[in-house]
């Protein structure tokens, strides 16, 4: 009899525990899903007019808006146009062009990249992603490298 | 696990004595009589308040309090964010149920005359909490920046402008300018998520502290029964019963929030004419409706003004009722209290109904 009762009791305990756990999960699941922001759609193909040719004489550069991220367009001292994703691969600062060194520099932790985007000194772990550059008439058009 | 918990308890207890609290919780009991069920409404109000805090914090993750972005951010919450429609719907429905429970709690406290000495301060903190809840409702109503809310807020803040002496200041203070604009939205947002929560939390802690210190009030007609029957132990008996009540409250809320999701309406356009059927939240409706019935002038005085004085005096009577009701200290049921209470409830009920039918 008493064994019967204890097994009934443990059954009720189990049901109660499962019910409470189930309820908690059903409360927490929507909360967790809510907290994570929905993905923002970004254009897969992106063509942006980064600058005009006159704007960018040799050994200068410009930060431009590339979708939702900053991009960097550099006219090298040799007069070659190159574009990069301007976000430092170390800790997400925005990089800039140093005319005195002829290199790309991140001010946050003194990281340097050469003009092919390769990380050459300081903490950056990876090169800057390259973007495509084309000149259409007067406009410098940057697109994502495919 | 249990050993670790005991050791942790002793560690804390040595530094901050917990044993008196544990002793208090063990001894705590709730009077048991025919009307004990009415004690439930206070707890339900607290439950909905907790839900308001939780869902409110969640909505803050996406909400943007500017005239340009508010409506869009709420639409974003409702259409893009996972379960966003549910969280917002729960916040809106739970707000209404909270005010409803607070009203019912107050009405039962009134008719059971639980506000009498020594519980006057519990009544006052409760009355202020109800006002704060209505402030939450009024400020929260504007935040989605939709048509209905925009015009309801215009009306509401204009009523405030009619207040004698301080009306102009009050309206300017609420609106942040001459009219309801983005500045009003920013202010209301600040009231809704910072000022009012701070006041509400303080009042709530006092309210609960007073109740713990004094225990539950027993209505006159039930003192004999309550003394005969042993009280319900708070832990675990009453606590578990309360949890069942909260589960029921949650079930009602979940049904309402999911079957009747709160609507967003159309974005407010300050240069569009007011749409038909402008109405405040239901708990302001009786005042709104009464003001509608008043003629432009009564005995040479502006009608609105007379209405505001009427509600002002009514509010003061309500607030100071524990000091006014001094009759029948012998413990007999009070005729006056019942009559006044029924009359006030009837007035509020009829005016609210007319507000719904009239529109």
**Biggest sheet of chain B, in brief?**
2 strands, antiparallel
The CATH topology of the largest domain in chain A, please?
Rieske Iron-sulfur Protein
Largest sheet of chain A: 6 strands, antiparallel
Instruction: Compute the separation of the termini of chain B in Å.
Output: 62 Å
Query: Can you list the strand order of the major beta sheet of chain A?
Result: 1-10-9-4-3-2
Query: How many runs of DSSP E, i.e. beta strands of chain B?
Result: 4
CATH level-1 class of the largest domain in chain A: Mainly Beta
Name the CATH superfamily assignment of the domain at 38-216 and 227-276 in chain B.
Cytochrome Bc1 Complex, Chain C
Query: Strand content of the residues of chain A, in percent?
Result: 25-35%
Shape of chain A from CA axes? Answer: elongated
**Number of continuous helical runs of chain A:** 1
Please, what is the oligomeric state? heterodimer
Number of domains of chain A: 2
The CATH architecture designation of the largest domain in chain A is: 3-layer Sandwich
Query: Structural class of the helix and strand makeup of chain B?
Result: mainly alpha
What's the CATH topology label of the domain at 38-216 and 227-276 in chain B? Cytochrome Bc1 Complex, Chain C
**How would you state the average pLDDT of chain A, rounded?**
91
Return the string of H and E elements of chain B. HHEHHHHHHHHEHHEEHHH
Largest interface: A-B, 8 and 10 residues
CA gyration radius of chain A, whole angstroms: 28 Å
